[in-house]
Amino acid sequence: MNHSQQQRFNYLYEQHLINLRLQGKRPATIDAYSRAVRRISAYFDKSPDTLTTADLKVYFNSLIQTHSWSTVKLDRNGLQFFYRYTLDKQWEWLNIVKPPQVKRLPDILTPTQISKVINGTKKQ
Predict the structure, then answer these.
(1) What is the H or E stretch that residue 40 is in?
(2) What domains can be seen in the chain, in order of their start residue?
(3) Which of 6, 27, 52, 81 is 20 to 30 A from 41, comparing alpha carbons?
């Protein structure tokens, strides 16, 4: 980034931090969301307010290959917050990156399921 771009980034970054605090975000969230803005700015060496949808797709494609889905989701949410509250723009992140749905087993059995297990183990 040249000097004027760096100044623009610094101003937007400070506004982003202010907006995070004003929205009542916790320190860990502030850290993660601000890291997302720093990371994408470093990746392209330009202020995130100048990025296109194509830039975002390139960035997230790279991020998916090098980081966990947890990091991808944090960056997506951090950048969405930046666009919404700092730039006052809407960002359709679903069209850019969507983490896979993970189906998990329930933690406990329902009463009906317990009855089936017990009845299935009874000697005849």
Answers:
(1) helix 27-44
(2) 3-121 (1.10.150)
(3) 27
